[in-house]
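REQUEST
  id: r-88c1
  op: predict_structure
  target: Solute carrier family 2, facilitated glucose transporter member 3 isoform X2
  payload:
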Amino acid sequence: MGTTKVTAPLIFAVTIATIGLFVNRFGRRNSMLIVNLLAIAGGCLMGFCKIAESFEMLILGRLVIGLFCGLCTGFVPMYIGEIAPTALRGAFGTLNQLGIVIGILVAQIFGLKIILGTKELWPLLLGFTIIPAILQCAALPFCPESPRFLLINRKEEESAKELLQRLWGTQDVAQDIQEMKDESIRMAQEKKVTVLEIFRAPSYRQPIIISIMLQLSQQLSGINAVFYYSTGIFKDAGVKEPIYATIGAGVVNTIFTVVSVFLVEKAGRRTLHLIGLGGMAFCSVLMTISLLLKDNYGWMSFICIGAILLFVAFFEIGPGPIPWFIVAELFGQGPRPAAMAVAGCSNWTSNFLVGLLFPSAAFYLGAYVFIVFTGFLVIFWIFTFFKVPETRGRTFEEITRAFEGQVPAGNRGEKGPIMEMNSIQPTKDTNV
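RESPONSE
  id: r-88c1
  status: 200
  body:
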């Protein structure tokens, strides 16, 4: 099972490259609806693998679920970002992470030996994967398509206007419609944006670097090393029932994601990300010290547990939710699918590498393994401080133009006034 922990993220990374093919052909909502078939198929394969006495079915089921998760990590943040009002885009985007952490917590609880974590019932636990997929299949037909997709990709202005009025509860959407129309004109003037074009075009280069670095800051922070092997870490810290401490970390994970929902539009993305990275760096040092001294001082075990819980809390304040939805904010309608593919691929590839390499690193480095993550966290904090702009309260058009303002005039595909990047840097005004 340890192998499947690290192979699934690799499947996610490979799959994410197909995001643009789905969302541009079928739309955002319909793409999410279609891929639920993969979740149902994967859940059935895993759920019936024991009855069939087939280990191959388990591996195949994990592969199919990996395909599903890889696609969804691109579809969902993109859809949420496009239907949410500008003033609430961050809070709505954080709901994606909230759904993920609730799923993790539910899986941890149901995986207890007193529930489904037994030799007889574990296939049922894996088969439960189909339940969220079935619920989504039932609910998504009642959800609207992205208004931005309808207007910019399908040229259905009236449908987009009606959807915005219904979604946002106001008749005054003229400014938003005009912003979409302007973006549609810009998109028509540009050639089709591919993954390669994302790296070649000067106007996309800085936002894609920021997107990749934020995704790496999430995975190379060490959070998944803690969750993949949390039971063993708690056991090393001297906890008698480490599985319950792991569930406690899952509870903290969920609570602080809820906190982030309410903070992200007040404090801003950049500020929360800096707080999260800084707090995690401090906690990783504290974890190292406590693990080194726990044999000499019994009370250090409690310090270690507290450091792990704080580490998880700081993660969900910033590095957990923000990298997923900020990618959708940094790009316009044309390059957004390709950007989500690149960012998601970097996220899941680094996830795979952490899961693969952490056990060996822990074996050779012992408690000092978390110092490696401290180094990464410091690097990402410095990068965020100097390079990541604040996007709170800004429209997609404003953010796109701000990045274009850094490109020499000869490289821009459009004439007109260009905002400077400092116009989307943090300000003293915290009102949206």
